[in-house]
């Protein structure tokens, strides 16, 4: 007891203790200070406050770009954010003594990367991804290894000529490869940021983007391997180390994937039971995906792959379990989180550029940029020639060009280069500077030019839209048809595998994870209810008064609720299994006892039909006359 | 109705592929009589549980007068699914359309669409729901307001889908 008051006296009350403690201690010893009218205690809120200011300034910067008339059309957003970051960095550097880079590897990997990757994984077009999985894996695994080997080898060879300084100063063999392994990987954040804006066609997009997600496994393994080799020293490496290195690639990649899938299924299972507490539904999606990421990181597996596959897996099951509102929340929260972390990453990248410790080595920088670009092109050409032997949709020259040009480097490389231990790698500062230079080159030069290039080369653009009813049905029809034809031909192809998985999914997984099963083709029903919902809202918006008049007794909102409920599947007709026995296709023979609700529904249905018809007629006439004109010409 | 002349088909399908398909054909042909019956098709385990099994098998027998198909007819149907390089051909749609259009009157009626939906969506959905889905689908595609989907409507509805891509398989050499 006696030591305690003394300690309080010695301690500086302003910096360490909170006001309450100071008051208490003072009461014991001294004459009581008067109760302060106000206090300034910045230390206590420093960290969250600074984080808040960062987010605020990044978001304001973002608003600024979109308000400027021309700027955001010429530059990708990421470039502008880096520029703002540099400006802030300069101000901080000369104006204050803060000087510390806010982009530490830990904040990056634990807090800023996961939202972006989860967003990517959750909204991944699954079908497209799995259709092109072969090409993506080829590019991600073989392509990245090819790049590491060639870039590392060439840089090392150049180093031997003494071009980077005297041979003693030049980085050692393993140091170079450590650097090559972090600079070779295409960065998902940068690729997303640039490709989201230019809207290239979906196949091109998924190949580049899928590559950037999946090459994380290679990067993690190679980086870790080189790090360990570096500690061991070049002479102590035996064959066993190399073999375990190769083996660990499979462990890292498959382990991350499996962890992700398991967490994805668990999320599906948990959301099955959330129908009583709708408000916490989004929490499960975020937290469980994040836990998947951390869980993979615990075992030094690929967290990026874990969270990607977690998103891919959970999506189908979660979407049919959670309410429409929760779904909207998830969608917007994910978009918001990912876009703000993307914004902050690019800004931090700019801030981190302004630093004392730079070590600029012109030849090293120039050669790294040249090798990165050249080997990327060579790798893409070789690998797409290989892939084209097996692909139905061949990758054209233009596609290959965009693929190699879209190989942007970004913050993952920067965070990894910061992780290098300076004691082991004396050239760390040179590597950091070079990495920043490469990132700037790819984000600025390639990022700015890719948009006009895509226009000049006439790359097919994507048209983002919801599928129509016809497309949904006919496409499913074709899937079944193709699966059947593949069975007849006796070839195990994409359709065949998908068909088998769907059947397995429908029989075993879906009944386990989904609360109320909506038949074998949930997508068709989903599209249907989405479209009807949209129509209903449209009608409501156009002339709400008519509905009010027609219904008479019932209120508009009640009617609307009835109607949408019916479409979305809350109605008993959906879950009613007895109905299915009447497979009579002749509709006149079905006996029909309309209840009051049915009558209201019918009214709405007619209303909708009438509301929609005129539109249809006009548009169809226009189309047909247009068609005829074209034909005549 | 023969959609492809034999010579044309041979141009597109390489001898290797024909050879491979022929070996598949003979392995399907349990009775060793050079032709396939419906039962031969239905013996393929995965095909038998395909919801569209009936229609697919039916497509093979459409051109033949008997209830058996020979290798040439077999190939003629499969040739629809070879990957094509020039975009001019739009024949692929017609086969799919004919699989909907059971009575061969050139339009997909509501009942025809409904029966396909029934096969695909399965038993958990009420008939009313399916009907409204079918009606909605027809309303959406039907440009001539006749309550049916004609072939032109069908093509139009799928013009944003890469049908050539979706309906092609690589026959392994």
From TrEMBL, chain A:
Major localization listed first in the record, in broad terms: membrane
Cross-referenced InterPro entries: Cation/H_exchanger_CPA1, Cation/H_exchanger_TM, NaH_exchanger
Keywords for the protein's UniProt record, in alphabetical order: Antiport, Ion transport, Membrane, Sodium, Sodium transport, Transmembrane, Transmembrane helix, Transport
Cell location: Membrane
Domain Cation/H+ exchanger transmembrane stretches: 55-455
Membrane topology term: Multi-pass membrane protein
Gene Ontology terms: biological process: regulation of intracellular pH; sodium ion import across plasma membrane
Residue intervals passing through the bilayer: 79-96, 108-124, 136-156, 176-196, 203-226, 246-270, 277-293, 299-318, 330-351, 363-386, 398-420, 432-454
Cellular compartments per GO CC: plasma membrane
Pfam family, one: Na_H_Exchanger
GO MF annotation terms: potassium:proton antiporter activity; sodium:proton antiporter activity
Domain of life: Eukaryota
Xref: NCBIfam families: b_cpa1
PANTHER family given in the database record: SODIUM/HYDROGEN EXCHANGER, SODIUM_HYDROGEN EXCHANGER
Protein family (similarity comment): Belongs to the monovalent cation:proton antiporter 1 (CPA1) transporter (TC 2.A.36) family.
Protein name (database record): Sodium/hydrogen exchanger
Protein species of origin: Glossina palpalis gambiensis
TrEMBL record, chain B:
Compartments where located: Cell membrane; Cytoplasm; Nucleus
Domain EF-hand span(s) in chain numbering: 96-123, 129-164
Keywords carried by this UniProt record: Calcium, Cell membrane, Cytoplasm, Lipoprotein, Membrane, Metal-binding, Myristate, Nucleus, Phosphoprotein, Protein transport, Repeat, Transport
Domain of life: Eukaryota
The organism of origin for this protein: Glossina palpalis gambiensis
BP terms from Gene Ontology: protein transport
One Gene Ontology term, aspect cellular component: plasma membrane
Protein name: EF-hand domain-containing protein
Keyword Phosphoprotein recorded: yes
Main location: membrane
Pfam assignment, any one: EF-hand_7
Family: Belongs to the calcineurin regulatory subunit family. CHP subfamily.
Gene Ontology molecular function terms on file: calcium ion binding
């Amino acid at each position: 007891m006696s030591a305690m008051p003394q300690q309080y006296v010695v301690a500086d009350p302003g910096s360490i203790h909170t006001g309450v403690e100071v008051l208490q201690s003072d009461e014991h010893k001294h004459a009581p200070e008067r109760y302060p009218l106000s206090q300034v205690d910045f230390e206590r809120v420093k960290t969250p406050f600074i984080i808040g200011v960062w987010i605020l300034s990044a978001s304001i910067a973002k608003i600024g770009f979109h308000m400027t008339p021309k700027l955001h059309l010429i530059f990708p957003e990421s470039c502008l954010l880096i520029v703002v970051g540099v400006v802030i960095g300069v101000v901080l550097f000369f104006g204050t003594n803060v000087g510390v880079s806010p982009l530490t590897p830990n904040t990056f990997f634990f807090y800023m990367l996961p939202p972006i990757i989860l967003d990517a994984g959750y909204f991944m077009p699954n079908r497209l991804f799995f259709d092109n999985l072969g090409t993506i894996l080829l590019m991600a695994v073989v392509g990245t290894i090819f790049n590491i080997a060639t870039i590392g080898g060439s840089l090392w060879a150049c180093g031997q000529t003494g071009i980077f300084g005297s041979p003693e100063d030049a980085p050692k063999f393993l140091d170079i490869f450590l650097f090559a392994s972090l600079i070779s990987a295409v960065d998902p954040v940068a690729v997303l940021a640039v490709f989201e804006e230019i809207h290239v066609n979906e196949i091109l997009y998924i190949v580049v983007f899928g590559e950037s997600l999946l090459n994380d496994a290679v990067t993690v393994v190679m980086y870790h391997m080189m790090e360990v080799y570096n500690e061991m020293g070049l002479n102590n490496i035996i064959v066993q180390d190399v073999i375990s290195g190769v083996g660990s690639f499979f462990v890292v990649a498959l382990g991350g994937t499996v962890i992700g899938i398991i967490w994805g299924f668990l999320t599906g299972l948990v959301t099955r039971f959330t129908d009583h507490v709708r408000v916490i539904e989004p929490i499960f999606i975020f937290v469980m995906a994040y836990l998947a990421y951390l869980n993979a990181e615990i075992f030094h597996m690929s967290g990026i792959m874990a969270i990607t596959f977690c998103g891919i897996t959970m999506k189908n099951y979660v979407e049919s379990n959670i309410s429409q509102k929760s779904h909207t929340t998830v969608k917007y929260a994910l978009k918001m989180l990912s876009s703000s972390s993307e914004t902050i990453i690019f800004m931090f990248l700019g801030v981190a550029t302004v630093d004392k410790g730079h070590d600029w080595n012109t030849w090293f920088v120039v050669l790294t940029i040249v090798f990165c670009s050249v080997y990327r092109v060579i790798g893409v050409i070789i690998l797409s020639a290989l892939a084209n032997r097996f692909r139905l949709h061949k990758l054209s020259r233009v596609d290959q060009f965009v693929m190699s040009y879209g190989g942007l480097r970004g913050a993952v490389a920067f965070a990894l280069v910061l992780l290098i231990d300076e004691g082991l790698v004396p050239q760390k500062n040179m590597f950091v500077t070079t990495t920043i230079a490469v990132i700037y080159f790819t984000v600025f030069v390639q990022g700015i030019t890719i948009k006009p290039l895509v226009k000049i080369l006439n790359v097919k653009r994507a048209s983002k839209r919801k599928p129509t009813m016809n497309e949904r049905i006919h496409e499913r029809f074709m899937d079944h048809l193709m699966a059947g034809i593949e069975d007849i031909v006796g070839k195990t192809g994409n359709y065949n595998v998908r068909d088998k998985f769907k059947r397995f999914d429908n029989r075993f997984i879906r009944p386990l994870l989904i609360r109320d099963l909506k038949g074998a083709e949930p997508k068709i029903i989903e599209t249907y209810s989405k479209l009807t919902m949209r129509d209903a809202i449209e009608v409501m918006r156009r002339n709400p008064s008519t509905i009010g008049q027609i219904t008479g007794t019932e209120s508009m909102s009640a009617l609307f609720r009835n109607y949408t409920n019916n479409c979305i599947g809350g109605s008993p007709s959906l879950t009613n299994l007895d109905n299915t026995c009447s497979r009579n296709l002749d509709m006149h023979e079905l006996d029909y006892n309309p209840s009051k609700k049915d009558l209201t529904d019918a009214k709405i249905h007619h209303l909708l039909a009438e509301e929609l018809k005129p539109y249809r007629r006009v548009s169809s006439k226009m189309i047909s006359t247009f068609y005829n004109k074209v034909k005549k010409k | 109705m023969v959609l492809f002349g034999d010579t044309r088909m041979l141009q597109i399908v390489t001898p290797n592929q024909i050879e491979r398909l022929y070996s598949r054909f003979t392995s399907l042909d349990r009775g060793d009589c050079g032709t396939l019956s419906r039962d031969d098709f239905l013996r393929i385990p995965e095909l038998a549980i395909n919801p569209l099994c009936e229609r697919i098998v039916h497509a093979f027998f459409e051109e033949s007068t008997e209830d058996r198909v020979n290798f040439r007819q077999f190939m003629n149907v499969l040739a629809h699914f070879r990957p094509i390089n020039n975009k001019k051909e739009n024949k692929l749609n017609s086969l799919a359309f004919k699989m909907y259009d059971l009575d061969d009157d050139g339009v997909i009626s509501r009942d025809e669409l409904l029966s396909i939906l029934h096969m695909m969506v399965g038993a958990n959905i009420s008939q009313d729901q399916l009907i409204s889905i079918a009606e909605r689908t027809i309303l959406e595609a039907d440009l001539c307001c006749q309550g049916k989907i004609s072939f032109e409507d069908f093509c139009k509805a799928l013009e944003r889908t890469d049908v050539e891509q979706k309906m092609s398989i690589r026959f392994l050499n």
